[in-house]
Known about the structure:
Oligomer: single chain
Shape: globular
Structural class: alpha+beta
Number of strands: 17
Helix content: 25-40%
Number of helices: 11
Order of helices and strands: HHEHHEHHEHEHHEEEEEEEHEEEEEEH
Strand content: 15-25%
Amino acid sequence: MFSLRASVIFRTGLKSRGLATISEAAASFRIPLIDFAKFQAGSSTEKKTAATEIVSAFKSSGFIYLYNHGIPAATIQNAFAKSDEFFRMPVDVKETLKWEDPRSNRGYVKIGRERVTQATDAAEIAALREKAPDFKETMEIGRDWDSVWKNQWPAEADAPAFKTTMLDFFQQCHELHVHVMRSIALGLDLEEGFFDEKIQEQSHNLRLLSYPPIKRALLDNEGQARAGAHSDYGTLTLLFQDQVGGLEVQNPHTGVFIPATPIPGTIVVNVADLLARWSNDVLRSTLHRVVAPPAKPINSHETITPARQSIAFFCNPNFSAEIACLPNCGTVAKYPPISTEAYIVGRLAATYT
């Protein structure tokens, strides 16, 4: 259940209702809280109101907190527990499942292999990775019935019920994604089912993330972060956070990064680059990063940051879908049409070693 106290804390100094004008947004940037039950089970008026709120937020900040989203708390807690068990496995066991191909985007990624960034030049990304790699490890999972690209599953004996847990979680996240995309369609004055046949192939990526404890001094190097400033690649991201915190979202009007404080019972949902492109930049893909929460002293000279877990569900259109300017999103397209596969694979190929 959504916490009213968390809402009050988060909204301190901010407007409690309505979106600010651009000038006001520069001073009071916020991530709105959306009651998704109004879209899922409300009257036709409530449904339209919720859709309008979501699209308005995605035009302004690109981020929302979604509560009453329909994924049970126990399901989310179990996914976190199985993720934690996976990352506790020996490194040599995890490395047998290593990520190998951007077309697959499946498998284990060790600490330092990825460097998320807005750069697109391979040499520039390689230099950034060498100087300040992201201090995290991940496990990437795709649709399990793919005839070409297979998931890398640990042995059942090494990670009991990991596979079944993640496949169930993947499916529930996909179903929520479908409903959020329907709300976006309605908010853009399109037919509610406009996106249904463009996303039903479930070409998504479930990413489990582990940020191990690290000495604070190692994060103080220039450009270093647990995950550098970036935007996501697909349509939407559903982010499940633990209570450690560290996610920050950039106010696009000032360039200042604002903490996206974890709120119990909510999912952080943000617009990604491909949906921004699809909407002709009507919907905003906003830069965000993961920084270290306050560190704890371990001796008189050093401090250490706590471990952090999160789970991201990166939503994509069908890989064969053509992404071209949506209706009601301007008369002049800013971008040429592109397939989902060409766009996503290109971004992934530049991100990893």
